[in-house]
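[#protein-structures] MJ: dropping Olfactory receptor here for a structure pass
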Amino acid sequence: MSPNNQTVVTEFLLQAFGNLHSRLSVLIFYVFLVIFGLTITGNLLIIVLVTTGRVLIPPFNIVPNILRASLMGGAKISYPGCISQLYFYGGTTVTECFLLSVMSYDRYVAICFPLHYTSIMDFNTRVHLMAWPWILGFTVNFIAIVPIANFNFCKDHIIDHFYCDAAPLQKISCSDTSLIEFISFVFSTPLFIVPCGLIVISYVYIFLTILRIPSTAGKQKAFSTCSSHLIVVGMFYGTLITKYMTPSQGHSLLVNKIISLVHTVFTPMVNPLIYSFRNQDIRHSINGFKGSIK
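AK: finished. structure tokens for Olfactory receptor:
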């Protein structure tokens, strides 16, 4: 590619659903606005009800752009902003992969070794299990983001998506993308398979332990403690596998957008419901909070 054909790109245009009718774009805006409001409200309620919170979803760094792009038929994002969004989105996604495996290990210890739970999951262990997913997630993602940040872009700066993702940036880049494709292949497979494998192994032992519980009530109680986590794991890995680990040639652009919407918008909305509102302690706290304000 001749240097004369390259331009210095300072911003991108997120097209989102800009090719839709204006009335439909406004409808999409209000739908996403309601979903975003419910997501924030649910998590704020959890923060109010508990003194220490657990990070359940990635930061809200994408949905505001969807709202703006849907209402305006597109939204500009600066080049540094695009790269930053891609970095934090990828980092939190990898982090959640490891956090879900940590949560499965926590349930494994609680169900298989209930009498030794406090000694196994002591303070130092909990700190390491919480810190290392974040360290690994953002360190590994930094390795992948460096080549993308050095991409050259020609005339086209329109991203046919509603957030900055690696695939759309590769599509409009006039640089050689073989390095980032190699890095993605080398790192993405173990980053998804290893945590997923740990989850599967943990639940194999959990189910074997539950089957040995003599009472039906005891089995139901043990299963109920795992159901919320399994639902979230299924939604999270289901969308990731469909989006990143299946041949992209088999997906239309619209299908990729829908899958991305499920992963970035709808899954965060239902996470508070699945994780917390099904929890008996949270329900008791809600009832107590209602009683205190009457």
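MJ: nice. The longest helix spans residues 79-112.
AK: one more thing. The radius of gyration is 22 Å.
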